[in-house]
Amino acid sequence: MRWSILLPTYNGRPTLEAAVESVLAQTEADFELLIVGDGCTDDTAAYVTGLTDARVRWFDLPKGPGFGYTNRNVALRESQGEHIAYMAHDDLWAPDHLELLGAAFDATGADFAVTRPQWLSPSGALAPLPVDLVDPVRLAEFRSDFNEVPAVCVAFTRSALEAAGWWPEDVESAGDWELWKRILAVSDHEPAVVPQATTIHFRAVWRSSDTRSVDLLDELSRRHDEWWPAELVVDLPEQAEGMPVQRALQDAISRDPAVWWDSVRRGARLLDGRLATLGLEVPVLEHRIFAHDDVLEEVRSSNGELAGTIETLVADLTTAQAYIRQLEDELLMARSYIEHANSEISRLSAPEGEQPPA
């Protein structure tokens, strides 16, 4: 079998159906879908066992620690696919997601592949991030500093999973990023990258914010409706009110998936060009802020270990204050990026002959 698709869920019934439909609509049909119930107490089991597609396999398991990484390994050890793809119960795939990933694996011989990340922001704007792991600098950041690639964009070979030691069962969170780094560490190949967005990632219900890059793009989309590509604005029908946005969006996409996704990818190309014109480098800004966060976390850990030494605590607090001031400078820089964008957009949008000086 070419593909095994891992879909873990914990009481995700409200959005699970739309996610499963987007998987079963793949143009690449050679797969099994492993739906892993991590101690579900809602009607997820009834829904999954009622599916008639023979490619669906249901694992109804007791609640595992944390995010249920142990249960994911239970299912994967019974998987049959040469390649593993990851799906979440509250995300969506384009119909050609597996097809494009498979072509990338075939063309490169890679063990690990990603498609372009794309969030749906709180304002209803699709935010495709300019993440490019082909760039050695971006890849180094991904392997050491921070991760902006949602798991729904990732695929890898089963052999690489086995070599990397399966999902980490000794961590409470961020186990996906830990696994990705382990796979890259044991691989002899650079990751393969699909430049198109093939997924829609939604903010998890337990999160209060998105990544800083997504927040910056969302701010731009809110301020400039005409400048922001219309193809990247989600316009849901009125009857969508009262249902999960994933369900409403999947219904809208399924009316003509090829046209819908072609339009979104055209919008992403337009956005890339407009951001380049404005001189905005979202990933670079993201890296700087994350770097300071990491240092502050190290200081906090040091305080905990040396709480009995007042002199050390005072020195650590002084260091933390210095980095907080640096972080404030970075946030001011972020605001200046937005102000620069506002100025440039106004200038570029003004009628000919009325444009203010650059």
Write a structural description.
Its EC number is 2.4.-.-. There is one protein chain. The protein is an alpha/beta fold and 358 residues long. It folds into two domains: 3-202, Spore Coat Polysaccharide Biosynthesis Protein SpsA, Chain A; 280-358. The protein contains twelve helices and eleven strands. Helix 1 (13-24) links the parallel strand 1 (3-9) and strand 2 (31-38). The protein is globular, with a radius of gyration of 22 Å. The termini are far apart. Mean pLDDT is 84; it is low at 285-296.
Write out key terms for the chains shown:
358 residues, alpha/beta, Spore Coat Polysaccharide Biosynthesis Protein SpsA, Chain A, 4-stranded mixed sheet, 15% strand, globular
Provide a quick synopsis of the model.
The chain has helices at 13-24, 44-49, 69-76, 97-108, 136-144, 158-164, 175-186, 212-223, 245-254, 257-278, 282-305, 310-349, and strands spanning 3-9, 31-38, 56-61, 83-86, 92-93, 112-116, 118-120, 126-128, 154-157, 192-197, 199-202.
List the helices and strands and how they pair.
Layout: E1 3-9, H1 13-24, E2 31-38, H2 44-49, E3 56-61, H3 69-76, E4 83-86, E5 92-93, H4 97-108, E6 112-116, E7 118-120, E8 126-128, H5 136-144, E9 154-157, H6 158-164, H7 175-186, E10 192-197, E11 199-202, H8 212-223, H9 245-254, H10 257-278, H11 282-305, H12 310-349
Parallel strand pairs: 1-2, 1-4, 2-3, 6-10, 7-11
Antiparallel strand pairs: 4-9, 5-11, 6-9, 7-8
Helix pairs in contact: 1-9, 6-7, 8-11, 8-12, 11-12
